[in-house]
Amino acid sequence: MNANVDADIESHGFYPAGGGRMVMKVEPSTGMSGLELMDRVGRLKPSVTALVSRIPESVGQRECDVIARKTGWDKKAFQVVEIQQAGGPGNVVMIELGFDNVSELIIGFGKVGVKAEQVARAALREARAHLASEVPVGVYLADQLLLPMGLAARNGYRSEFCTGPLSLHSQTHIDVLQRFLNVDIRCVSNENGTVHVSVQNSEG
């Protein structure tokens, strides 16, 4: 979309201690361009990463073991990372569902009193639900794409994507963008439960 953005995590933050710190570098753009995400392209390339901070590494390994056993994914797709720079103890397991044109990231958050296996199973259920939907854009990514697509529409570029039912947050986001960016955002619901979202200049 003609945007040059770099992000670097200086310190991870886990609830309740917090302390996370990220540095973003955004370069000036000559103008945002459009994007089309109507289908997944290529074969699934999954990866699973368990992050652990100030807790036994075995917690992350147990999460990976559950997902590996239930999916049969290649062992090279799994890794446990021990976080050195963090404000406190914590754990997350991340499942990345990568395709040639788009990636979806599912995150399971560890909690006190919740077993690692439960965290892993919950994340895997969400990942499987996304895969079964066959849409390229998940509910959270849909919301995140709206603003850059709105900016591209102001430059005359049309964007579109296919997703599942829109969240209330996305619906509110659409209303705000149409009011302030002078763009036309159309959402068409299909019989199979998918939603076709198009974003274009209101004069186009």
TrEMBL record:
Superkingdom per UniProt: Bacteria
Top-level EC class as recorded in UniProt: ligase
Matches recorded under Pfam families: RTC, RTC_insert
One Gene Ontology molecular-function label: RNA-3'-phosphate cyclase activity
Protein name: RNA 3'-terminal-phosphate cyclase
Gene Ontology annotations of biological process type: RNA processing
EC number, as in UniProt: 6.5.1.4
Entry-linked SUPFAM superfamilies: RNA 3'-terminal phosphate cyclase, RPTC, insert domain
Occurrences of domain RNA 3'-terminal phosphate cyclase insert (ranges): 48-131
Entry keyword set: Ligase
TM annotation in the entry: none
Occurrences of domain RNA 3'-terminal phosphate cyclase (ranges): 2-186
Taxonomic lineage from the root: Bacteria, Pseudomonadati, Planctomycetota, Planctomycetia, Pirellulales
